[in-house]
Amino acid sequence: MFDDDILRLESDVPRVEETALEALTRLGFFALRTGDHGLDQFVLEMQGLVPCTLTEIVGDKGAGKTQLCYSIVAAFLRDPERKGGNIALIDTTGSYRPSRLLELLEKRWNMNKVHGAELLKRVFVRPANTSARLSSALDALIKAGKTSNVELVIVDNVGSAMADTLIDYRNSGIKNQVSVIRKLTKLALMGNWVIIVNHLVYWRVAPTPALGYKWINEIAHRIVITNDDRYCDVHWLKIFTNRTMSDDRVALELTTHGIKCFPEDETMNVLGYSQSQIMSTFQCTNDDYMFGNY
């Protein structure tokens, strides 16, 4: 009778399945940092910056997408656990400024310029303003493999480089997009963190990631940053894991020290919960695609 009670109790306990990688990430072993404790805790809880997974940071213009990437890069460079790791930054708009990274290292961690400049030598930048050049850059990274010691790959901004795929979208455009996504995914599965930056376009009033139906549905993991409707200096960050939306979000502020998370009590009492317009899911239907609604 006692054994039956135990079995009955065990059967009532919900079982949550997760891979070994997911378990280790949840425990913080593979967590990328941003340099802000509050944001790091949120990202860790939501499993927002995990290795072996293609992650897209998407958001409004001026919402802090590149600033978030810079914060991640700076935190990576100064992390003693990543001392031997390099960063490949594919710059599609010519906007990369090492001086911004250096300023962030100096102001957030009081690092002197000499030390900061030494760390920046681990950031390898390659321009790529078309889908063909982006594809070529990814091929080079895949071919180099672990010999390059690259552990973090960032593409800023993928929407800019891949814009030419929308010209003949239904034919060569989709094929080129799938090819690039497969290469990005391959880089991630090699054990790297792969982060791409994209912008929002407004489709049927609601915002959606640029580049159309196929691109939207091929990427399962997104970090979404939107501008607040009432406060110009407030931005909201949400995380979509495996195309699943959570209502949890954090309020952010952009500073010269990098991206900063507002404390929970300040967010609740001062800012309130003004609702930025965020789609419940970033998926289009086949009908939308067929009618060109992308």
TrEMBL record:
It is found in: Nucleus. One of its GO terms (cellular component) is microtubule organizing center. Coiled coil: none annotated. This is RecA family profile 1 domain-containing protein. One of its GO terms (biological process) is reciprocal meiotic recombination. GO terms for molecular function: ATP binding; ATP-dependent DNA damage sensor activity; four-way junction DNA binding; single-stranded DNA binding. It comes from Steinernema carpocapsae. Signal peptide: none annotated. Its main location: nucleus.
